[in-house]
Amino acid sequence: MYVLCQGCTWRGLPGDFPLWQTVYGYFWRWSQDGTWLKIHDKLYQWVRVAAGREPSPSEAAVDSQSVETATMISQDVGYDAGKKIHGRKRHISVDMLGLVLRVLVTSASLPEREGAKKVLHRVHNTGNQVKRLNTIWMDGGYRGDEFMRWVMDMFRWIVTIVLRPLEKKGFVHLPKRWVVERTFGWLNWCRRLSSDF
């Protein structure tokens, strides 16, 4: 969490932490063996129950955000022509509390619907954690009968598109869709997630 929030390198951990190699070693091993995912999934259900909700959500929101990468990054980097950003794209799925279900990081050049398909597969593969899920809220970038039929055929979920009013300028509070935007805002509190290093 310190590295994530401060944006420092692993070697830049303060002296009151164990050796950076030890900390990074645990982080890497737990990333590879699925420990972080197991911890996330258990904490996710506890937070929902503590908020008076069922452990499994009935609705979710999906969106993507393109993030610039640092100059020394070259792997999985592309250009998002719509946002005019050279970097990576985060495809994120959240419940209506704004809690993350699953995330997928790709090249920024990957189209939104293709990224959504991949992140929805990850959500579906959580099994019982999403057994009540039936509605996915998305913005206009995901419009298209073919995509919406694909989601229905593959997962039996209904895609509901929420469009921004054309006459409005600036920020517009969109029903259900604002939750995923707030989650992106939370992620940007961390320096390492504001710019991809």
Written account of the structure:
The chain is an alpha/beta fold and 197 residues long. It has a single domain, classed as 2-Layer Sandwich (Nucleotidyltransferase, domain 5), CATH 3.30.420. 37% of the residues lie in helices and 20% in strands. It contains 7 helices and 6 strands, in the order αααββββαβαβαα. It has helices spanning 2-6, 20-33, 35-50, 112-124, 145-155, 178-187, 191-194, and strands at 59-68, 78-80, 85-95, 100-107, 135-138, 158-161. Strands 1, 2, 3, 4, 5 and 6 form a 6-stranded mixed beta sheet that branches. Strand 5, helix 5 (145-155) and strand 6 (158-161) form a beta-alpha-beta unit. The longest helix is centred in the N-terminal third of the chain and has 16 residues, at 35-50. It is globular and about 55 Å long. The chain starts with a helix and ends with a helix. The mean pLDDT is 90.
Shape: globular
By CATH, the architecture is named: 2-Layer Sandwich
Tell me roughly what share of residues is in helical segments. 25-40%
Q: Helical stretch count?
A: 7
Provide mean pLDDT, rounded: 90
In short:
The protein has helices spanning 2-6, 20-33, 35-50, 112-124, 145-155, 178-187, 191-194; strands at residues 59-68, 78-80, 85-95, 100-107, 135-138, 158-161.
Write the layout of secondary structure elements.
Blueprint: H1 2-6, H2 20-33, H3 35-50, E1 59-68, E2 78-80, E3 85-95, E4 100-107, H4 112-124, E5 135-138, H5 145-155, E6 158-161, H6 178-187, H7 191-194
